[in-house]
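[Automated response] Your request has been received and processed.

Submitted sequence:
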Amino acid sequence: MPVFRTVKDARSGSIRLEAIHQPLYDSVALTSQTSVTLFSSGSASRSALLTNLQTAGQLSWPKRFSIRALRQVLGYAAAATYADASAFFQRGSYKIQVGEKVYLTIPAFILSAGVGLEQQTTVPATATTTGSVFANLGRPEQRNIYSLLHSIYLPPVQNFYVQLDIASGLSVTVTLHLFLEGELLREIQ
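Generated structure:
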């Protein structure tokens, strides 16, 4: 059953919008850079795997979004090690800015797909093969994400971005996927 909300709009008065649970997400390949901005480029020439933001740095009218939680998922190159993952979490910090205001500043090790860094090593069956290492920031459970006590509201046609600062860059390529979890209000079709 669809959920509808009535919101006040300066342009149109009261309007009815459909509410859905749809995270906003963006991704970036990190290497040696010390600062990157997410949600600053739209979906032009980028696949749905990389972003679902249609307009660069803002929501088109009449869409609105309420950020209730944040999640980061890291994808590593084959040569990445536990030390590389640890270096990212020790050096990174995020800043969420809407318009001229900063609404959240947080170290990267708090935002996770779970809680805590977990690594598993598979032991080879024979001495001639090598084992594999799998690392994940926390147990992959839906509840293990950073939830906000008060949501961050993204109004329509208002610039916003998330900036990631890394103290000294990284030695390997890491693909970062950042998810803003919450409620998207969109026009009724």
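Summary generated for your ticket: The longest helix spans residues 82-91. The chain has a mean pLDDT of 81.
If you did not submit this request, please reply to this message.
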